[in-house]
């Protein structure tokens, strides 16, 4: 919605410059502008915003040897590119991940301070499972389809994040052979 006026102005100016009929026809102008805005908005949210988040927020790359070795090991086991691990300056325990061209996992200082080693491993495995599933991309694409697709009237575009969370939790339990550390980490996240 923020991009629409810019694209509208640019399309209007371009149509006028090249003497196209869309310059004087508002319906044609909007029919050209709306799809272009959706494409630009989607690409921006997939690639530009995550990159800006990494560059301009107060995150720093984690240089913890055991965490980096742990993530490298599971990257190799799953035949995926090594995701960068970032620490956020937040006292609340939180973790999230996303995947664009490069994968990234974010851990807060609060999470690292409150959690034991096995709990941090459980959180890393959980986020690693989301990267394997392309969860961030799927959440975004389903949201866009649900909001803007004319077919959403006839067909329910539903993205079940509970299913993804359960699948990520199952991955942790498969690797750690127990849900004890995962449940402990989840309790700490919920209590804060």
Description:
Helices cover 64% and strands 10% of the residues. 21% of the residues are buried. The chain has helices at residues 4-17, 26-56, 65-77, 109-114, 117-133, 135-148, 161-176, 180-191, and strands at 59-61, 84-88, 95-99, 103-108. The protein has a 4-stranded mixed sheet with strand order 1-2-4-3, sandwiched between helices. It contains 8 helices and 4 strands. The protein has 192 residues and is α+β, with helices and mostly antiparallel strands.
Task: Name the poorly predicted regions.
Answer: 147-159
Number of helices: 8
Strand content: 5-15%
Query: Span from first to last CA?
Result: 34 Å
The level of helicity is 55-70%
Number of strands: 4
Which structural category fits the helices and strands?
alpha+beta
Q: How would you state the average pLDDT, rounded?
A: 79
Query: How large, in whole angstroms, is the Cα Rg?
Result: 21 Å
What is the topology, as strand order, of the major beta sheet? 1-2-4-3
Envelope shape: elongated
| Order of helical and strand elements | HHEHEEEHHHHH
Largest sheet descriptor: 4 strands, mixed
């Amino acid at each position: 919605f923020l991009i629409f006026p810019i694209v509208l102005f640019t399309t209007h100016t371009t149509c006028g410059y090249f003497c196209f009929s869309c310059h004087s026809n508002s319906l044609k102008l909007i029919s050209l502008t709306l799809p272009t805005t959706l494409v630009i908005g989607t690409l921006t949210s997939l690639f530009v915003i995550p990159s800006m988040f990494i560059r301009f927020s107060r995150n720093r790359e984690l240089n913890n040897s055991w965490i980096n070795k742990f993530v490298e090991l599971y990257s190799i086991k799953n035949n995926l590119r090594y995701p960068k691990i970032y620490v956020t300056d937040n006292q609340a325990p939180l973790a999230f991940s996303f995947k664009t061209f490069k994968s990234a996992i974010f851990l807060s200082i609060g999470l690292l301070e409150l959690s034991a080693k096995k709990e941090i491993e459980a959180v890393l495995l959980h986020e690693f499972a989301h990267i394997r599933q392309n969860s961030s991309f799927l959440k975004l694409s389903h949201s866009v389809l649900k909001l803007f697709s004319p077919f959403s009237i006839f067909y329910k575009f539903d993205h079940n994040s509970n299913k993804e969370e359960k699948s990520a939790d199952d991955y942790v339990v498969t690797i750690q052979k127990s849900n004890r550390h995962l449940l402990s980490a989840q309790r700490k996240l919920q209590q804060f």
